[in-house]
Amino acid sequence: MVTMHVFRCGNKALVIEQVSHWWVAPDPHSGPVLFVSMQNGQHVTFDRKDAPDGTDGYAIEQGLLTFLERVGRQ
């Protein structure tokens, strides 16, 4: 059985095992945005509109790091 770890932020979700890398970059309209590159070449972005509490990409990245620490992945 394969275990999948899913990180959720608002209405978006990531399967951790499919993440290649991520970075935070500024956006002139919404502030810092978290960009995630997947192993299949797709990209997912998270910004203020995706977070229930309106946090920016840096805060969402910190949530992702906390999640990874909790599930023992990094």
UniProtKB/TrEMBL annotation:
* Native source species: Novosphingobium silvae
Q: What is the lineage of its organism?
A: Bacteria, Pseudomonadati, Pseudomonadota, Alphaproteobacteria, Sphingomonadales
The name under which this protein is listed is: Uncharacterized protein
